Predict the structure of 3-dehydroquinate synthase.
Amino acid sequence: MQTLKVELAERSYPIYIGEGLLANPQCFLPHVAGKQVAIVTNETVAPLYLAQLEQALAGRAVISVVLPDGEAHKNWETLQLIFDGLLKARHDRRTTIVALGGGVVGDMAGFAAACYQRGVDFIQVPTTLLSQVDSSVGGKTGINHPLGKNMVGAFYQPKAVVIDTASLRTLPARELSAGMAEVIKYGLICDEPFLGWLEASIEPLMGLDPQALTEAIARSCQAKADVVNADERETGVRATLNLGHTFGHAIETHMGYGVWLHGEAVGAGTAMALEMSMRLGWIDQAARDRGLRLLLRAGLPVVPPAAMGADDFLRHMAVDKKVLDGRMRLVLLRRLGEAVVTDDYPQETLRATLTADYAAIAAQLRGK
Amino acid sequence: MQTLKVELAERSYPIYIGEGLLANPQCFLPHVAGKQVAIVTNETVAPLYLAQLEQALAGRAVISVVLPDGEAHKNWETLQLIFDGLLKARHDRRTTIVALGGGVVGDMAGFAAACYQRGVDFIQVPTTLLSQVDSSVGGKTGINHPLGKNMVGAFYQPKAVVIDTASLRTLPARELSAGMAEVIKYGLICDEPFLGWLEASIEPLMGLDPQALTEAIARSCQAKADVVNADERETGVRATLNLGHTFGHAIETHMGYGVWLHGEAVGAGTAMALEMSMRLGWIDQAARDRGLRLLLRAGLPVVPPAAMGADDFLRHMAVDKKVLDGRMRLVLLRRLGEAVVTDDYPQETLRATLTADYAAIAAQLRGK
């Protein structure tokens, strides 16, 4: 087991990473202050892991709330199921909400914890690679609005994050790839040596080697924790974590939530950010191709949907949270291992990026 | 104009109190960081004060969202109207939400500000006495759930609070009395000299004398700010602000939201807290009667609804937030000017308090 500590003064918390942690009471009980616990999970994860977790929490008054699965349900109506469950079981302000599942469950359970009686304790048990390396660090919680993703939410920190690498064995291959998009991102934005390690380790990682996974997850969480430490409320450097996300959110919104996985959209969005960074002359073609090749080896799309034109992107990007007072800020790469957030670029470079022939680039790289 | 400063480190903010402040741009513009402003108000307040406030904000891109009036609308559906308005007008993370109205508008607009894109700036312009002395200080925001009041919300601080005493001229007499319940509360829980001042000033206050109002509001806000400063997240002394509220919430829940005004329920609830404190031997009958008499002179009910029995109270009080792990904590008076939060009392004293003959006590006091 590896343990990281996310340092946020009185809101600091540990991240435990290892095989079989779901069944280990010592990962949970020190972080449960009251007698009541509410496990929030979904109908896919519940049959796989709920009993194990309930076992680890034996001795507490545990209820479980099983949500429908999927991003399409990341809305107020589903959130309401959590509040209903808590209130019907008369959970008070000292209850602890445990999120068991992927990013959607974590975001909703975390937002419920942030809002229930104006804030109760919260433990994250992310069961997908994406949520393990992304949403379990940083305190972002929330739900979608018909007019935009994650438009309603809160910054709210968990008391602990428990990552059981064994839970990845039941994860569909497509979702494993989607999670790798975020892992690769950390290498690209702030850790060039990690990028090299990933290039050397991508096969064992995709083959679910537990040690490789623990290392990749720990380094990803550490990278994110370092950035979050430096900038908890995302006014500056934290925005670099959104590499590929502004383009990616536009893809998700345009295609409809759930058609592309979030990580898949981030993969294609990262390809676009690499392309634009090259077109600005910040990275050379070899660096762009190094990034693209790793994305391809992780099984990720590097080509945006054929159905989307430049205007589609621009329209959807304009409601993204990175728009401040109407100026569109993008996360781009100054070099591999260093990202910048900037709105200082020629509009025609953005348009050229949106209309570049990614299919041809990918075909060429696959051919090499 | 009086200016108080609520000290909360980097979240400190000023409270401006005086006649005609609604029309004063200098109370607002220094606290508006971006170009976009969203005024949230309701259908009762909008015709009275919206144009004036828009005038004070001239030069910014201002939208307004007009909600239906009343506690019955303090729910997710109404909150959604705020998010819809913000997203349709493409307000970004630097927008400022201005709450123009009473406590319901302030709670909802504040919660919307806490949640919109995980938190945007927020200015409160409370137009009722209750919201001026209570909800404008302390950062409590939220909405009701069918199973309980204020069960979903956030602690979220405004950038400034602007209190225009002139807005009380359009306030119904019943709501003025309701606001006085909270003013009197501050005297009872932490400021015996203020209680004496109120006994001497209750007639000018009820007659809307601007100077008396400014003084009463400023001292109330200061009292609350002092308590909030000491305990921002309500783990200890802050709970004393709930004097009369546990009983009062039970009345509101039982009668249905909006039948009794919140302040009226707090008035009767405070009478019950006085009664229980006397029955515990902590205050004498003269002290109880001093409190009751001031409540009566402010036009407040001191008799709970005839329809409510002890079991009704106990049932509704059990889901109140003051219940920790099943123990019912109450705010009571150790003496006039000093409140305590305790679950250390004989159950039969609580039951005797719930079944006391308040109508007879009130009749006797009115006869004196």
In short: Chain A has a mean pLDDT of 93. The interface with chain B takes residues 34-36, 76, 80, 83-84, 87-88, 90, 92-94, 114-119, 140-142, 145, 147-148, 150-155, 233, 318-319, 321, 323-326 of chain A (CB under 8 Å).
